[in-house]
Amino acid sequence: MDYEGASLALHGAKLAINPAPRTPVFLAALGPEMCKLAGEAADGVSLNWCSGDAVDWSRQLVREGAQKAGRDTTGVKIAEYIRVSVDDDEDVARRAFARNMMGYALGPLDVKPQSYRAHFERMGWTADLRKIDDLRRNKAPVDEVVDAFPPEMLLSVGYFGRADGAHAHFTKLADGLDTAIVRVIGARPGIEATRAVLEACAPKKRS
Questions:
Q1: 114: which residues sit within 8 A by CB, 6+ positions away?
Q2: pTM of the model
Q3: Was domain 3-201 assigned CATH 3.40.50.620?
């Protein structure tokens, strides 16, 4: 590329790397067909809001897809965001976590479950979500809807609570993943809430 300007001149410049680096392609997936497609054609699959059992289920589907395509069944990597909210007041952390989950897990009322709603129902939370739907139909305050999310549901896919419990829980949920990514949910406004999560989940130093 050649360019002559008032403050810059380029002659024979290239806006590229030659040879181009090998860039892995990860496919975001929730349902069975997308997981199989990742196994057939992608370098990895990017999961979201998964319990340990859901990770195992997804990995098996990825392997089925890879096997169908004649690929190495262990070569497709599994990555996932794991959400973490920490605060000395566990209720503050829980409510922040539940508010973040709401937009994913609930979906529109009186519509056939799809996308993330279907994903949460596959993980066994259908009855609990229907109870929350009843609150929504009755125009319950948002705080009441937030408090209706069972703590067990929240902790099955992420962590909320005091900082001293975050690392062990995150490590447990990361089991079975090739890459586990901390997704910060700030329990309170400001940078300190983010810093608290990062410090709580930082890899432990070996002595």
A1: 107
A2: 0.86
A3: no
